[in-house]
Structure formats: structure tokens, C-alpha cells
UniProtKB/TrEMBL annotation, chain A:
Catalytic activity annotation: (1S,2R)-1-C-(indol-3-yl)glycerol 3-phosphate + L-serine = D-glyceraldehyde 3-phosphate + L-tryptophan + H2O
Broad class of enzyme this protein falls into: lyase
Biological or metabolic pathway of the protein: Amino-acid biosynthesis; L-tryptophan biosynthesis; L-tryptophan from chorismate: step 5/5
Name of the molecule in the record: Tryptophan synthase
InterPro entries linked: Trp_synth_b_CS, Trp_synth_beta, Trp_synth_beta/beta-like, TrpB-like_PALP, TrpB-like_PALP_sf
Cofactor (UniProt): pyridoxal 5'-phosphate
Keyword annotations of the record: Amino-acid biosynthesis, Aromatic amino acid biosynthesis, Lyase, Pyridoxal phosphate, Tryptophan biosynthesis
TrEMBL record, chain B:
Matches recorded under SUPFAM superfamilies: Tryptophan synthase beta subunit-like PLP-dependent enzymes
Record organism: Hevea brasiliensis
EC number(s) reported in the record: 4.2.1.20
Reaction catalysed by this enzyme: (1S,2R)-1-C-(indol-3-yl)glycerol 3-phosphate + L-serine = D-glyceraldehyde 3-phosphate + L-tryptophan + H2O
Keywords assigned by UniProt, alphabetized: Amino-acid biosynthesis, Aromatic amino acid biosynthesis, Lyase, Pyridoxal phosphate, Tryptophan biosynthesis
Cofactor(s) in the UniProt record: pyridoxal 5'-phosphate
Top-level taxon of origin: Eukaryota
Keyword hit for Iron: no
Pathway(s) of this molecule: Amino-acid biosynthesis; L-tryptophan biosynthesis; L-tryptophan from chorismate: step 5/5
Descriptive protein name: Tryptophan synthase
């Protein structure tokens, strides 16, 4: 799994996803049809363990599809092997292959299971509080009005109103229901700021499952209250001291635990990163955000949004909003990463802007790495964006030119945090504030009446101490 | 202009002993009841008809919309009223007229509905708490069914914003530029600050200094939302008094945004009206979920806004039990509690007659509760009335029981309730064994408890 240590210009990938190559169903080169997939009984026993190496030149992007290239509706997201173009995949130790296949087939069969879908819909409605409103931000719109009275219309998709205060719970709920179907009694997860940890602990409490959260020791100090919340909810929080004692180390530790306890344990990954089927699964659980937005946009103005804006850390809230609109080429998709102290400072988390392709945590994607292929420690004032990798689907959308990615500094994010609080009485998460900050550059370029939907992915109560320190309110 | 309208309204003011008042009390909910009440009054301008012609324009004023309810005196039996200095009477009358007008104005109602839906995130779910229900099942597997009305999911994390946004909209209608408010736990302060930011009103919040320390996170939130937070020696009652003083000094420009169902008329009725959306939704959701009404409604009681918010809709349904749970602090006999209805006596406080915690000399006894929002020595006059008439029952829960309930719901349902709501949840321990199997119990989960995590952490460490 440590293929991230390979030099930058090419990567030798030991695709022990050889099991997928020798799988009897591999003859079907069909796009990944969820309804048709039948679980393979013992795929792991068939793995011959032969390795495949792929050579990637930095300049020339590999074209894996032919003529379907330009039509987003025909893109395989992901394809049979869990790849989005060249990104994604399953770069994991042998021991995890069976668990991943089992997960994939369980997810696939549940997608069309009306009992599962009804139970999930019920929990999302009564427990999580969906659907979340699409809120017309009148004063923010006014703020971006140009002197001639023209300007875009700004709407906020209120994921901050979800139970636990962020979009994270959409995925946590879906995955815990999946884990129950798989008769797993033990749930593990990693967390950086604590939001995903709290969401996981929340759903485990709700469904009575044992919960272990891995958190970097440094993060635990910075987020003591979130640690207490997780413990209150009945979870065990384990400190990770290795490496820099932050999110990426917690993720590695969680994966190590999963390898050891794979029969009894389900790993709830917090974002659209990781080995297939996680990026696809997490996206599927979050895509309700975009689906609701489409419906609400029609109700409100009888059309589609013109621009979707979301912050990008691992990429889950962004994919959740974008997914339903990827095939609508007239809808602009804009992701905003963390530029920290500035893109040239070396202290940022702008993976898609400054990163290079490699493998991290089981997937091929852009990541922040130095010339030796070692991970560069990211920085952002917002812990949730402080991840050196990014979801493989985002890397794919960037390369295809379907989505645009920009970045915003800590300072700009704090300004946006203050701005929304003062103008709309909504305190956004610092992560979300990055998306809001980009409106400053975006709005002047938009035609009059352009409909902009910003994913307000979380509330900022957790960031108040940080903000107060910097803003000196 | 507004004063002409209210002057005419007051000519039809209902007397305390008037039969119409009794009719009013039993049919409080329906708009028609107000009109029906008005019909019983003698008419000055149409001597031959027993009916009130609300369509007839009053001298020198705009046409009053039809079916504007006649003013009630703001009395609930002997409770309530307007015990205020003369200077405030005109102001309160103006407020009352504006309030009644707003209720009937479709434009206001539309704007409010949009804000409730898109800004606050209503309607809030009625959530079947499966694991909590199982927890209360006896060995035979029998027990009540527990539902939670999820007011914790509102924007700002409590029921307070339902009222704050509506009143801030009224302040704007009245052309006022700034708002003052008083807050205990800070929830109302945060809600007011948020509503004022959204409606571009200036906002000043008064808060007791000891409360500011205990709920520091809320103070920071208010400041971020652009409000000015002024500390007052003491706690909520002192902050209230200071806020009222500030209001009286600036009547022309300032709106006093009351957070709860106390104070002089029309405040209790106004706040209750805006909070009653909770009960209205609950009725509809209960019908959808099990095709009937709830059997028991359970809510915590500080001053009573969330309780009345859920109760009010069902006051006329005699088969629905209404149970309020106050704060017993260190215990009812310790002298350190806030159980006004259990231990208080009738008196006048902050402009209304109601139960309150007072000593033999009539001085206010400082209340205590770990749930800061329940720490009020008075209580809603309407709740006092419901207690006296036996329509509602009131009990109490100690700090310890509330903390246990806080931890219980977190562990069992993954919902961290506010310490205030935890008092209602704590009472389930005593209530459930007495209920027949399948009884539908709805607890008003009036707020989320993230703000209380530090308090509970300290409490645990202290008690160890």
C-alpha cells in the first residue's frame, strides 16, 4: 500500500486487484451496473498475486476511454475496477481484498433493496433532519451586487442544519446500516477535526454498535471537546502517536486495525478517498445533497443552478453536491481547496493545484508529495481540509476539465466566516468558509441573475475559538 | 396611526369576569374563537345588531382587516396582565396591535413561513426513539413508545429562533432599527443575534456575568453574529431587568425582543403564538405516523416557552396529558433550585402576575439549576393558570438526574440533548413505569447539548 514512496514520474503499482482480473465476470466490459452484479463467492482464493506495473508520464494524460470522452453521461464513474480514468483503484494488502469485494457486493445488492432504501430514507428524514433547505441568501446576494444593480443570486444548501452539524452524517448513516446488514459488530473510523468521528460515534450509538475512533494525538489536544463528545456518545477514542500524529496517521492506523480485524469490523471511511468501493459508496450516500438541490432549484426558479461551489478536503461534500449535475454540461462545478498560508508558502492543502499523482490510502489520486514521494504535511486553519490527498473522482473531474479547482487562504476563509455570520446570521464551518470566500473572486465575473448554489457543508460552532483568536472580535 | 387602532381595540377590551373571557380560555386556539368572543360584546355603532362589524373603518385609521382578533386582556384567570409603569403602556398597546395585524397579514405570514422553512430548517422531525423505548420496556416487553420532537435540529440549535425571527420581522415592520434582549443560557441571545444579522438590525444582548462564564461559547457566537454583549451583575433576572431599562430609555428606536412567555401582555401571548408552530406540526406528524394524537406531552419548564409551544395546540384536547418538568437543582428542600410551580407563590414579577420564587418579604429568591436556561425565578402566567386549573401537571428533576438523562440519550440514541431538555428526559424514568403499554409519549427535545459538554465534563470531574 505504500506505493506513495515511488518516484514521481512513474508509479509501479502492485495491483493485487489481480483478483478482479481473474474474476469470472471480468469478461463483461459493461459500465458498472449496480443492479446486475452478483457477488463472487471466493474471489480472494483465485488471486494469483501477479503484479501489474503501469507507467505514467507526467505530461501525457492516459486516455483509457475512446469516443465517450467528451460526454459526461457516458463516463464510467467508476469503471468495473473502481477506476475513474486512471485514478482510484484498490491499492491495498491482500488481506483486505475479500472485505472490499464483500463490501462492494453488499452495497450493490442493497442499492435496489426497497427495505434498505426505505429504512435509510426514514433515518435521513427523522433522525438526520433531511431534506435540508435551499436558502436564498438575500443579504449576501446584495453584498455581491455591482454598482449597476446586477449580480448573481446566491443560494446556500444548508447541510449545516443536519444532525451533528455537517454533511458527514449522510455517509455515516448509510454505512452503519450497511455494516448491520453485513452483521458486523465493530465499527472503526479515523478523524481529523473530530466531525467524522462524532458522526460515526453518533450512528453507532443509535444502532448499538461498538465504536473505535482513531485520532492523531496532536488533533486530540486541539479538539478536546470533540473527543469528549465522542466519548459521551459511547465511542472509544484511540490516540495515534506515529508520524505527525494527525489525520493521515490516524487513517493509516485505522486501516491497520481493519486488516487485523476484518471479519468482525467495518471501517467507516469519512470521505470519498480510499480504495474502491469507498469513493463510490461514500459518494452514493452523499449524492442526496445534489438530488435535493435539483428538485429545490426547480421549485424555486424553475431551472437548474448555473454554478455549484463547494470546499474540497477529501471531497465528499463537493461530490455530494456535484454528482447529480456532472452530466449537465451547462452547470459549472467549482471546488475550492485550502491554500493555507499561501500556495507558495509550502503550508497549504491545495492538492489538486499543487499535488502530483500517486497512491495514498489505497487509491491513485493527486497528492502532496515531495521529490522522494514522501507525503508533505498539509496545513489549513480548517482541520477538515487538512488532508494531503483528495478523492480520485475529483482528480478525474479535474483532468477531464469538467470541474474547476481553485484555492483560498486561511485569511480569506476567516473573512468569509465573519462575513456570512454578520450578513446572514449563519456561522459556517471554516471548511465551508473556503467555498464562501471564493465568491469574492467569482461573483464579479458572473452574468446578472446567475444562480449560484454554495454547499454550506457544516456549521461553525466548533470553530468559534479558532476564529475569535484570529479575528479578535 | 397604530395608536388609533389600538385605542379602538381597547374600547372592546374584555373584562376579567366577562363570560367571553371564559369562552376565550377554552377555545383559545382558534382564530374564530376570538371573533366569536368579540361577537358577545355590545356594539356601539350598530345598535340593532348583536354582531361586531369589524369591517367598519374606524375614524382616522386605515381599514382594519377582517377577522382581526379582538384584544384579550392578557389575563389567564388571575395570572398575567400588564403590571408596568405608565410609560410602557402605550408601547405595549402598539406592540399588541402590530402583532395582531401581522398575524392576519398574508404577506407577513408568507415571509415568516419562508424563513421558518429555509432559514430555520422547519419542519422539525417527530423522531421515534427506538432504543430509548426499548430501554423503558419492562420484562414482559411492555412499555410506552417514546418520540422526540427534534427542536434541537433548528438553526442555532434550539426552539428559541422560532420566536426571535418572527419578532425581529415585526420590529422591522415597525420601522425600528435596533433590538435589545436578555438571555440566560445564551440560546435566546444567539437566536436574536442571528435574526438581527439576517434582517440587518442592530442587536444588544444583556447577559448575567456568571452566565457569561458558564456559557462562554454562546457569548462568542453572539459576538461573531455581530451583536454587542453587555454583562450584568447577577444572572438572567438581572439581565432582563437591565434590558427592559434600556428599552424604556429608547422607546422610539428600540424593540425589546422577549425570549420567553413571561413579561407584560402581549409578550407571553406573542411568544406563545410564535412557538405554537411546534405543537401544530406535532399534531400533523402524529396523525401521519400513527393516525392519532399523542397521549402524553413532556417538556422542560424554565419560563415555559418550549413547553407552551408544544402544549398550546393540545390544551383543548382533554385526553392529552400535559407534563412540565422544572429544575429541582440540588433538591427541592435544599433551597437551591428553580422549581417555581412546585415551591413558588403568586406575585408580580417582570410585569406579570404568576408564580414566583419569593421569600417571606416578597424578595426574589435566586434560583439554581445546572440547566442555565431553566434558572428563572418566575414562570409563564399561562402555565400558572394551567397548573391552577389542573389542566397540566408539573414535576421536577435534580441536576444529577438531568446529567444522567443527558448521558443516557447520548449513549442510547446518539443525540446530545441540552441540559434543559435533559430535565424532561429525566422524568421519563419516573413516568414510564406508570404508563400502559403502547402509550404515545412525545418529549420536546428543545435544544442540542453541545453547549453543555464542558459543564457535564466539569460536573463529572467535580462529583468524582
Amino acid at each position: 500500500m505504500a506505493a506513495a514512496t515511488a518516484p514521481v514520474s512513474f508509479c509501479r503499482a502492485h495491483i493485487s486487484s489481480s483478483s478482479t482480473l481473474s474474476n469470472p465476470y471480468s469478461s463483461s466490459k459493461l459500465p458498472f451496473k449496480f443492479g446486475k452484479f452478483t457477488p463472487c463467492p471466493s474471489s480472494s482464493s483465485k488471486s494469483a498475486g501477479f503484479s501489474v506495473s503501469c507507467t505514467l508520464a507526467r505530461e501525457a494524460p492516459v486516455k483509457m476511454e475512446g469516443k465517450e470522452d467528451s460526454d459526461p453521461a457516458l463516463w464510467q464513474r467508476p469503471d468495473y475496477y473502481g477506476r475513474f480514468g486512471k485514478f482510484g483503484g484498490k491499492y491495498v494488502p491482500e488481506t483486505l481484498m475479500h472485505a472490499l469485494s464483500e463490501l462492494e457486493s453488499a452495497f450493490d445488492s442493497l442499492k435496489d433493496d426497497p427495505d434498505f432504501q426505505n429504512e435509510l430514507a426514514g433515518i435521513l428524514k427523522d433522525y438526520v433532519g433531511r431534506e435540508t433547505p435551499l436558502y436564498f441568501a438575500e443579504r449576501l446576494t446584495e453584498h455581491y451586487r455591482r454598482p449597476n444593480g446586477e449580480g448573481p443570486h446566491i443560494y446556500l444548501k444548508r447541510e449545516d442544519l443536519n444532525h451533528t452539524g455537517a454533511h458527514k452524517i449522510n455517509n455515516a448513516v448509510g454505512q452503519v446500516l450497511l455494516a448491520k446488514r453485513l452483521a458486523k459488530k465493530r465499527i472503526i473510523a479515523e478523524t481529523g477535526a473530530g466531525q467524522h468521528g462524532v458522526a460515526t460515534a453518533t450512528v453507532c450509538a443509535r444502532f448499538g454498535l461498538q465504536c473505535i475512533i482513531y485520532m492523531g494525538a496532536q488533533d486530540m489536544e486541539r479538539q478536546a471537546l470533540n473527543v469528549f463528545r465522542m466519548r459521551l456518545l459511547g465511542a472509544e477514542v484511540r490516540a495515534v502517536h506515529s508520524g505527525t500524529a494527525t489525520l493521515k496517521d490516524a487513517t493509516s492506523e485505522a486501516i491497520r486495525d481493519w486488516v487485523t480485524n476484518v471479519e468482525t469490523t467495518h471501517y467507516i471511511l469519512g470521505s470519498v478517498a480510499g480504495p474502491h468501493p469507498y469513493p463510490m459508496m461514500v459518494r452514493e450516500f452523499h449524492k442526496i445533497i445534489g438530488r435535493e438541490t435539483r428538485k429545490q432549484a426547480i421549485e424555486k426558479w424553475g431551472g437548474k443552478p448555473d454554478v455549484l461551489v463547494a470546499c474540497v478536503g477529501g471531497g465528499s461534500n463537493a461530490i455530494g453536491l456535484f454528482d447529480d449535475f456532472v452530466k449537465d454540461k451547462d452547470v459549472r462545478l467549482i471546488g475550492v481547496e485550502a491554500a493555507g498560508l499561501g500556495l507558495d508558502s509550502g503550508k497549504h492543502a491545495a492538492t489538486l493545484t499543487k499535488g502530483e499523482v500517486g497512491v495514498l490510502h489505497g487509491a491513485m489520486s493527486y497528492l502532496l508529495q515531495d521529490d522522494d514521494g514522501q507525503i508533505i504535511e498539509p496545513h489549513s486553519i480548517s482541520a477538515g481540509l487538512d488532508y494531503p490527498g483528495v478523492g480520485p473522482e475529483h482528480s478525474f473531474l479535474k483532468e477531464k476539465g469538467r470541474a474547476e479547482y481553485y484555492s483560498v487562504t486561511d485569511e480569506e476563509a476567516l473573512e468569509a466566516f465573519k462575513r456570512l455570520s454578520r450578513l446572514e446570521g449563519i456561522i459556517p464551518a471554516l471548511e465551508t468558509s473556503h467555498a464562501l470566500a471564493y465568491l469574492e473572486k467569482l461573483s464579479p465575473t458572473l452574468p446578472n441573475g446567475a444562480k449560484v448554489v454554495v454547499n454550506c457543508s457544516g456549521r461553525g460552532d466548533k470553530d468559534v475559538q479558532t476564529a475569535i483568536k484570529y479575528l479578535q472580535v | 396611526m397604530a395608536s388609533y387602532i389600538q385605542a379602538r381595540f381597547f374600547n372592546r377590551q374584555v373584562e376579567d369576569s366577562c363570560p367571553a373571557n371564559r369562552l376565550m380560555i377554552s377555545k383559545r386556539r382558534t382564530r374564530n374563537a376570538h371573533a366569536a368572543c368579540a361577537q358577545l360584546l355590545p356594539m356601539e355603532n350598530t345598535p340593532n345588531s348583536g354582531k361586531l362589524d369589524l369591517n367598519k373603518p374606524m375614524m382616522g385609521t386605515q381599514q382594519v382587516p377582517i377577522n382581526v382578533p379582538a384584544i384579550i386582556s392578557g389575563k389567564f384567570g388571575r395570572f398575567g396582565g400588564k403590571f408596568v409603569p405608565e410609560t410602557l403602556i402605550a408601547c405595549l398597546k402598539e406592540l399588541e396591535a402590530e402583532f395582531n395585524w401581522a398575524l392576519e397579514d398574508p404577506e407577513f405570514q408568507n415571509e415568516l413561513q419562508t424563513a421558518l422553512r429555509d432559514y430555520i430548517g422547519r419542519e422539525t422531525p417527530l423522531y421515534f426513539a427506538e432504543r430509548l423505548t426499548n430501554h423503558y420496556k419492562n420484562e414482559d416487553g411492555h412499555g410506552p413508545e417514546i418520540y422526540l420532537k427534534r427542536e434541537d435540529l433548528n438553526h442555532c440549535g434550539a426552539h428559541k429562533l422560532n420566536n426571535a425571527i418572527a419578532q425581529a420581522m415585526i420590529a422591522k415592520r415597525m420601522g425600528l432599527k435596533s433590538v435589545v434582549a436578555a438571555t440566560g443560557a445564551g440560546q435566546h441571545g444567539v437566536a436574536t443575534a442571528a435574526a438581527c444579522a439576517k434582517l440587518s438590525l442592530e442587536c444588544t444582548v444583556f447577559m448575567g456575568i456568571s452566565d457569561m462564564e458558564k456559557q462562554n461559547s454562546n457569548v462568542l457566537l453572539m459576538k461573531l453574529l455581530g451583536a454587542e454583549v453587555k454583562g450584568v451583575e447577577g444572572n438572567f433576572k438581572d439581565a432582563s431587568s437591565q434590558a427592559i431599562r434600556e428599552w424604556v430609555g429608547n422607546l422610539q428606536t428600540t424593540y425589546y425582543l422577549t425570549g420567553t412567555v413571561v413579561g407584560p401582555h402581549p409578550c407571553p401571548s406573542m411568544v406563545r403564538e410564535f412557538q405554537s408552530v411546534i405543537g401544530k406540526e406535532t399534531r400533523r406528524q402524529a396523525m401521519e405516523k400513527w393516525g392519532g394524537k399523542p397521549d402524553v406531552l413532556l417538556a422542560c419548564v424554565g419560563s415555559g416557552s418550549n413547553a407552551l409551544g408544544i402544549f398550546h395546540e393540545f390544551i383543548g384536547d382533554e385526553d392529552v396529558r400535559l407534563i412540565g418538568v422544572e429544575a429541582a437543582g440540588f433538591g427541592l428542600d435544599s433551597g437551591k433550585h428553580a422549581a417555581t410551580l412546585a415551591r413558588g407563590e403568586v406575585g408580580v414579577y417582570h410585569g406579570a402576575m404568576s408564580y414566583l420564587l419569593q421569600d417571606e418579604e416578597g424578595q426574589i429568591i435566586g434560583p439554581h439549576s445546572i440547566g442555565v436556561g431553566l434558572e428563572y425565578p418566575g414562570v409563564s402566567p399561562e402555565l400558572s393558570f394551567l397548573k391552577d386549573t389542573g389542566r397540566a401537571e408539573f414535576y421536577s428533576a435534580t441536576d444529577e438526574e438531568a446529567v444522567e438523562a443527558y448521558k443516557r440519550l447520548s449513549r442510547i440514541e446518539g443525540i446530545i440533548p441540552s441540559l434543559e431538555a435533559s430535565h424532561a428526559l429525566a422524568f421519563l424514568e419516573k413516568l414510564c413505569p406508570t404508563l400502559p403499554s403502547g402509550t404515545k409519549v412525545i418529549v420536546n427535545c428543545s435544544g442540542r447539548g453541545d453547549k453543555d459538554a464542558a459543564t457535564v465534563l466539569n460536573y463529572q470531574q467535580y462529583s468524582m
